[in-house]
Design goal:
Residues 346-409, 411-418 and 423-436 have low confidence and may be disordered. Helices cover 31% and strands 21% of the residues. The chain has 19 helices and 25 strands.
């Protein structure tokens, strides 16, 4: 078959196949053009999920009549004048493919009245184009700005049209696309109307946080933590602004993460990973935070021309950008008390907006403990009160209480001579002003005390696990006493086939950090020659620990191939160590241990959650208590 040049229509339809996947892509391209045109108000009108009609109206600078035919030509744009501009794109659109591609697969009508040098043209013009046909420019009388109508999308490409989803599904994609654009451009008014129903109508000139709350939902206003971060000028001078949602409003998917680079909404795995990593240990790993991150960076440091639809970007130094975002979000979370309020009537700790953290200001150790909770309070009375709550409201907590009621653990440590919380668990001297009479241990699993805002219920295992984790992390990272390793007189033999030996070989740098030394002694076994003294003291067996560690690696939880996840791999290992070494539900604690554990709650980072992300502490506010007892 001879080589021949493709027709103009086929060229444009191929381009449309890359740029226009569905109606939402049309909305994205046309709305971005409106933003680039300096519009202060943009209105989007849809019919049948955008399949029958997409109309974009704006009050931007418009298109002069003589330029209308050129606007639907391929690779025609007003946004690039020289090749060197590709290295630092400053507009949302720049490829010059959008209108030509859209016209090739729909019935396109453009009406516009231009403003040139601050003066509005006396008259506007209208142009219609469809497939490979382009009509003549006709006069048009209307306000300054541009109106683009796209009808019968994919009418001449039935294969693509039949893959469109239902109208509600396509509208959902459009709504999400416009929300992301509107969130970034808070000085522009946006209105979205579908089948004569207004979905949202947002005014212009809002503050960034105000715009984000308007789009995310006003019920989240108190759940979002604003943060900023400025990089050093010598390191690029990048600036970050954002909102970090409380862990309690985490979602089942990552759709509530909004990322933007230089005014361009994007989807980027590197940045999404940085945001998720900042929440590590504050929520279960199968949950995703609500977060907004706006990154302003030198345009020469980012390539926005790596995807036909401009949905992805590539950073010159991705690890540096990853670290900036991770640090910005993490520091904001570390500076906030994230203790959630206990909920009633079936509300769950991870049920979205029904779970409300309080505006609690952390107090110094021992503060507010003077009044105390009387040790004469009936344990049965408290348990009855606790049982009145919905069994699901605290997740695992209720089940743990039932276990404790069903059977006493004969192996529980009862003697004050064998402290469960030792000086090794802490990095500072225990405060002497803790009133141990203000703490009640319930069924050897939960601690009950009070603060200025109400009743505090602590899961002893979860909190001690966080204490142990932070102690281990600091020691492994060289911020405290080094983690000691004990040589074994007789190496412990662990079964390990070739695949598992290869996994352990890849993990050698990580194992060395925590004091584990091992080596293969044959095709199906390895010998553990050194093990952390810390774990030995708490009865953790080397063979069991190594098998559990390899199982985590096989499950993909210890991926060391990406330098950005090295920290998360260390987190998983330390989490495993702290979980095995922490006090368990059913372990009796003496008064000194209770005081020491509660004191650490105010001293360690992220004390509101265990390393798995489950809550360590719940608060019953005075207001909630008064409501439950009919005082309000």
């Amino acid at each position: 078959m001879p080589i021949r040049k493709l027709s103009k229509l086929l060229i444009n339809q191929i381009a449309a196949g890359e740029v226009i996947e569905r109606p939402a892509a049309v909305v994205k391209e046309l709305v971005e053009n409106s933003v680039d045109a300096g519009a202060t108000r943009i209105e989007v009108t849809l019919e049948d999920g955008g399949r029958q009609l997409i109309r974009i109206s704006d009050d931007g600078q418009g298109i002069p009549p003589n330029e209308l035919p050129l606007s639907v030509e391929p690779h025609a744009t007003s946004k690039l004048t020289a090749a060197d501009q590709l290295a630092a794109i400053g507009t949302l659109g720049f490829r010059g493919e959008a209108l030509a591609s859209i016209a090739s697969i729909s019935r396109l009508k453009i009406t516009s009245r231009a403003t040139v040098d601050g003066k509005v043209n006396e008259a506007g013009a209208v142009l219609q184009a469809s497939g490979d046909q382009c009509g003549k420019v006709s006069p048009w009388a209307g306000p300054p700005g541009t109106v683009l109508e796209v009808r019968d999308l994919f009418f001449n490409t039935p294969a693509r049209r039949k893959f469109l989803r239902t109208a509600p599904t396509e509208f959902g994609h459009i709504n999400d696309t416009l929300t992301r654009i509107a969130m970034v451009h808070h000085n522009v008014a946006f209105k979205l109307k579908h089948n004569d129903r207004v979905t949202f109508d947002i005014p212009a000139n809002q503050e960034r946080a105000q715009r984000c709350v308007a789009l995310l939902g006003k019920d989240l206003n108190d759940e979002l933590l604003e943060f900023t971060h400025d990089d050093l000028p010598e390191r690029g001078g990048a600036k970050i602004w954002g909102l970090a949602g409380q862990p309690s409003i985490a979602r089942a998917t990552g759709k509530a993460q909004y990322l933007c680079v230089n005014g361009r909404p994007i989807k980027d795995r590197n940045l999404a990973h940085a945001v998720k990593e900042a929440y590590r240990g504050l929520m279960p790993m199968d949950r995703f935070p609500v977060a907004v991150v706006f990154l302003q960076i030198d345009p020469h440091s980012v390539d926005v021309n790596v995807h036909p639809a401009k949905a992805e970007v590539r950073f010159r130094n991705p690890s540096h950008v990853h670290g900036l975002v991770l640090s910005a979000v993490r520091q904001r979370l570390l500076g906030s008390d994230l203790t959630p309020n206990a909920s009633f009537a079936g509300q769950s700790a991870f049920a979205g907006s029904t779970f409300h953290p309080s505006a609690f200001t952390p107090q110094p150790p021992g503060a507010g403990a003077g009044a105390g909770l009387s040790p004469n309070v009936s344990t049965d009375a408290f348990v009855d009160f606790f049982r009145q709550m919905d069994p699901k409201q605290k997740g695992f907590a209720y089940q743990e209480v039932r276990k404790a009621l069903a059977a006493e653990d004969p192996a529980a440590v009862e003697s004050d001579d064998s402290p469960l919380i030792t000086s090794q668990d802490t990095t500072t001297t225990q405060p002497q002003n803790i009133n141990t009479q203000s703490v009640l241990q319930v069924h050897k699993s939960y601690l009950v005390t009070q603060d200025a805002d109400g009743l505090i219920i602590v899961d002893q295992h979860a909190l001690h696990e966080r204490v142990m984790f932070e102690m281990l992390r600091k020691r492994v990272l060289g911020e405290g006493k080094p983690l000691e390793s004990q040589r074994l007189l007789m190496p412990v033999i662990v079964d390990a086939d070739a695949g598992r030996q290869a996994t352990l070989e890849q993990m050698q740098p990580l194992l060395k950090k925590i004091g584990i030394e091992l080596a293969p002694i044959g095709p199906d076994a390895i010998a553990v020659q050194a093990f952390p003294s810390f774990l030995f003291e708490r009865g953790v067996e080397p063979d069991t620990f190594i098998v559990d560690l390899v199982n985590k690696a096989d499950a993909g939880q210890l991926d060391l191939s990406n330098p950005n996840v090295e920290e998360s791999a260390l987190h998983e290992v330390l989490d495993m160590m702290s979980c095995k070494a922490a006090v368990k539900a059913g372990d009796k604690m003496n008064e000194d241990e209770l005081a020491a554990l509660l004191a650490k709650r105010d001293e360690i980072e992220r004390s509101s959650n265990c390393p798995h992300g489950r809550p360590t502490t719940l608060r019953l506010t005075l207001k909630d208590l008064e409501k439950q007892f009919g005082r309000t």
